[in-house]
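Sample intake sheet
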Amino acid sequence: MTDPTAGAVSGLDQLLLDPTRLTIVSLVSATTWCEFAFVRDHAGLSDSALSKQLTTLGGAGLVEIRKGRVGAHRRTWVRATDVGRERLRAHIAALQQIADRAGRAAADRPDGGSDRGPDDGAAASGAGRPG
């Protein structure tokens, strides 16, 4: 019997499987520090939704948050921690590994990786279709 975990990909980060958190960590990893409004606007989130995600990511040690003032205006800045950058790198590498495996599996198919579906080629005669 085959081990169901034999082909499992290690390195996927459960926290970064969420597209919103992946977007946020990717954005802040590409900068030194960025303002809350930049992340909010580029991630397409409301203030409250971003705040909640940053609290989660900060609690896990993936981002650092600093608050301060610029003149009379309160500002919040965010950056990825070294741990956050490393976890993002490992997560992306694991996703790439999955994509690579899928590509190799398709190329190794007996039909040579053809994209033909089960009804392609049989549509004219009606062969192979459920009645």
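Comment: The beta strands are 34-35, 63-70, 73-80. The first helix runs from residue 19 to 29.
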